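Tokens help. Consider this.
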Amino acid sequence: MTTTFEKYPFLKELGLEEVNLGCYCGEWFASSDKLLDILNPATGEVIARVKQASTSDYERCLQAMTDAKKAWGEVPAPKRGEIVRQIGEALRAKLQPLGRLVSLEMGKILAEGVGEVQEFVDICDYAVGLSTETAKAHRG
């Protein structure tokens, strides 16, 4: 099967391969051998493939999320805000390639793809501001 992967060098910049693992829980994994083709909706070409996760893989992730939720809630808001700021910075650093990915995967024009990623960056910035305001409200 021919993929369009090599046509799009930004995919490698984002750490993607022709076949990618479909579940993340501290590390990428997937216990299933089933592959899902990721298609360019404009052309029907295969962009890449994802090794699908099983139900038990997802249950493992949900349990880890449930376990982490309480610990995350105990982290002071400014520290959580700092982590969200770092996420925003990482997204900002990859704005163009991530925007290209959204455009390619969703069949959108490039400006819309970049705009969607920028919106996520803006939400991170907003959340950082809320974290400092929350801390001030609790002190004062």
Observations:
- The helical segments are 10-13, 55-74, 77-93, 95-106, 110-139.
